[in-house]
Specification:
Radius of gyration: 23 Å
CATH topology of the largest domain: Rossmann fold
Strand order of the largest sheet: 10-9-8-11-13-12
Number of helices: 11
Distance between the termini: 61 Å
CATH class of the largest domain: Alpha Beta
Length: about 350
């Protein structure tokens, strides 16, 4: 056992009173607690003050899981038992303080991106990736998960100061007082400002498309090239999936970072609250609409449409709001349908068991 591990405290991994109080409520005092630091196919890497283990969940957990949300995710705190010095079994997931999740692009299933995050760095590059609507999608899922979003505009060395000022103004005009950092992983400009956002014992998640420079920024913060990176195509301007697994990294200053594979799409789940908080201007206007169930698309007496026509409301912001709402409603509708199918199936199983008892000798 190294001196580094001996000196480590559970708080250095992000543990706090929230998780400890839930551990006691669940009567898990007899189990060691560890944090999920990486997710693989069918297995997890977990870490605590005693070391790192390759861990698997129990068959009981697999059987009782109703969705992907019931499985461990990177950032989760879990109760384990140690099989040996290198392997462990996960028995329970502690309640999550925060969560980032999205819908798979072609399915109605939820993908948990990471759990127990304090701040989400939403990274876009200043070239072809720059897109205000995509920022709003990330903001919505961060807000719904109880996580503060911070914008990172990367690769500022690729454009002129005039072009950069224009993009910065667009962000301010669309998102108001949102925190954003202008940075270059090549020249290190803005790197100190990024470091100042990272506090000991807090967990930070990097979100963005492939090729925006998330892994390069984390390598800069780590001070070494731990994460594999590749240059983007100069022909298409599109990045490659350099990060294939979610994984936690620990900085010398005590900050905790999660790198994520690049996401081509950010599908909406049941994030109505996050959307309403993000578009608070529209939410406030909606209170003055003639109808309580106003969709803000065609109704007479709609304050949102009135503000749009007068120019008070930004058209791009309005259109993105409507699109995100439609996605969320579609997901909710499908989720309700799934629940009804599950209810009917459960009823069928219950009836079948009763019928079997009748025919037993």
């Amino acid at each position: 056992m190294t001196n580094e591990i001996v000196k480590m405290k559970i708080e250095d991994l992000g543990y706090d009173n929230f998780f400890e109080s839930n551990r006691k409520k669940l009567n898990l005092d007899n189990f060691p607690i560890a944090r999920v630091t990486a997710e693989y196919r069918g297995a997890y890497k977990v870490k605590n003050v005693s070391g790192e283990y390759l861990a698997k969940i129990t068959g009981k957990q697999m059987f009782s899981a109703l969705s992907r949300e019931d499985y461990p995710a990177v950032g989760d705190w879990v109760a384990i038992s140690e099989a040996d010095k290198e392997r462990a079994v996960i028995h329970r997931i502690l309640p999550r303080k925060t969560i980032i999740k999205r819908k798979y692009s072609n399915k109605n299933e939820i993908q948990v991106i990471a759990a127990n995050i304090d701040m989400a760095f939403i990274v876009e590059s200043v070239d072809r990736d720059f897109n205000l609507n995509r920022f709003e999608r990330y903001f919505a899922i961060a807000n719904d998960g109880g996580i503060k979003p911070v914008v990172i505009l990367n690769k500022i060395d690729l454009i002129s100061k005039e072009e950069l000022d224009l993009k910065a103004d667009q962000i301010k005009d669309r998102f108001g007082d949102v925190d954003f950092i202008l940075i270059s992983a090549i020249t290190n400009e803005g790197l100190d400002e990024l470091k100042n956002h990272i506090i000991k014992g807090k967990t930070y998640c990097f979100l963005g498309s492939s090729g925006v420079g998330k892994s390069s920024l984390i390598n800069k913060l780590l001070g070494k090239n731990i994460i594999k990176t590749e240059s983007i195509s100069s022909y298409t301007g599109k990045g490659k999936h350099t990060t294939t697994n979610r994984e936690i990294y620990f900085l010398e200053n005590g900050g905790i970072l999660i790198d994520n594979p690049g996401m081509r799409e950010v599908g909406m789940t049941d994030v109505n609250a996050g959307i309403d908080n993000l578009f608070d201007e529209i939410t406030a206007l909606a209170k003055g609409c003639k109808y309580n169930d106003c969709t803000h698309v065609h109704e007479a007496g709609c304050e949102v449409l009135s503000a749009l026509k007068s120019g008070k409301l930004n058209e791009g912001k309005y259109l993105n709001y409507i699109n995100l709402k439609k996605e969320t409603e579609h997901y909710e509708m499908n989720k309700t349908e799934r629940r009804e199918k599950e209810r009917k199936f459960g009823k069928f199983i219950k009836t079948a068991k009763k019928d079997l008892k009748k025919y037993k000798y």
